[in-house]
Design brief:
The protein has 292 residues and is α+β, with helices and mostly antiparallel strands. 28% of the residues lie in helices and 24% in strands. It is built from 8 helices and 18 strands. A hairpin with a 7-residue loop joins β16 and β17. The longest helix is centred in the C-terminal third of the chain and has 19 residues. The structure holds flavin-adenine dinucleotide. Flavin-adenine dinucleotide binds next to β3, α3, β9 and β13.
Length: 292
């Protein structure tokens, strides 16, 4: 199997920033993933997966890890009765399309989540009242010691969180859906997409919500808007003028610009509201926000 060195990660993230990975491979089967996990263990190299990179920022000076991008057999989708079986590398959009064609509803919430099944399990991604925890029957997870199926309870899924750690690779997910007419699904998806378009930046390079919503009457977006941060810019990154909980790559942004914006937003939210915002976006490499 080909293991490349120094592959730039910017083209694997929707923000379009980030330096090279120490090692990079595109496994196409369960066996290849296990082999790569053992290869990395023998070299004491951490392992992470990139899905569609829609919730990721990677360090500008690179990532000392083996990065995996799942393909082929690990991105296939099939339906059996009410169950949709998807490779973790399959895009949500394709899985939703297949579910609709098979007359299976329940995955409509994912229409506006531009990631993969694996990324969705890892983050327990969700929108409009639905999330992966609500539809996932079980997920096949690989480690260097072998693979096994885990239930949502074993995965520890909660709000934008799982107990999975880097080095555990989601290979497949099985979603339990319910019969629904393709026309109803189509109408719902159209409605959800137009709500999304009205509220959030589209056709911009972003990584989705920057911070998780805090336990507060204001959402993270409203809070940052009240701090006057809409449109605030550092280097090539700016807080979206449309929704303050999004950061856009306005012009040749670096990861450092996005991190500096996040630090500033967090500082201001703490100062004005006494709230410590927790980031939803995942960090790859040596990245951290300054303590408050
Ligand atoms: C415009 C926009 C809108 C968005 N809206 C939403 C929304 O409404 N709700 C929401 O929840 N999210 C939203 N997001 C964020 C993002 O799409 C989700 O978190 C998505 O689930 C990430 O999937 P991904 O495949 O892109 O994962 P990546 O961003 O590639 O990775 C995210 C994390 O998952 C890990 N990972 C990915 N695949 C695997 C795997 N197979 N095995 C182990 N670990 C894995 C990565 O290592 C990383 O830690 C949005 C993003 C954008 C850009």
């Amino acid at each position: 199997m080909k293991i490349e060195e120094g592959v730039g990660l910017a083209r694997f993230t929707t923000l379009g920033t980030g330096g090279p990975a120490r090692a990079f491979a595109r496994p196409e089967s369960e066996g290849e993933v296990e082999e790569l996990l053992r290869w990395a263990r023998d070299r004491s190299l951490p392992v992470s997966v990139v899905g569609l990179g829609s919730n990721l920022v990677a360090a500008d000076d690179g990532v000392e890890a083996l990065i995996l991008k799942l393909g082929a057999e690990l991105a296939t989708i099939e339906t059996h009765g009410d169950t949709l079986r998807a490779g973790a590398g399959a895009a949500n959009a394709v899985a939703l399309h297949r579910a609709r064609a098979a007359g299976l509803g329940g995955f409509e919430f994912a229409c506006a989540i531009p990631g993969t099944i694996g990324g969705g399990v890892w983050m327990n991604a969700g929108a409009y009242g639905g999330d992966f925890a609500g539809v996932l029957e079980r997920a096949l997870v690989a480690t260097a010691d072998g693979s096994g199926w885990l239930t949502p309870a074993e995965l520890g899924l909660s709000y934008r969180h799982s107990e999975l750690r880097h080095g555990q690779v989601v290979l497949r997910g099985e979603l339990r859906l319910r019969p629904r007419s393709p026309d109803e699904i189509k109408a719902d998806v159209r409605e959800l997409n137009s709500r999304r378009k009205a509220a959030q930046p589209t056709n911009r390079r972003t990584f989705g919500s920057v911070f998780k919503n805090p336990e507060h009457e204001l959402s993270a977006g409203r809070m940052l808007e009240a701090c006057g941060l809409k449109g605030h810019r550092i280097g090539g990154a700016q807080i979206s003028p449309k929704h303050a909980n999004f950061i856009e790559n306005a012009e040749a942004a670096k990861t450092a610009d996005a991190i500096a914006l996040m630090a500033e937003a967090r500082r201001r939210a703490h100062e004005q509201f006494g709230v410590r915002l927790e980031h939803e976006v995942e960090f790859l490499g040596e990245l951290e926000l300054p303590a408050l």
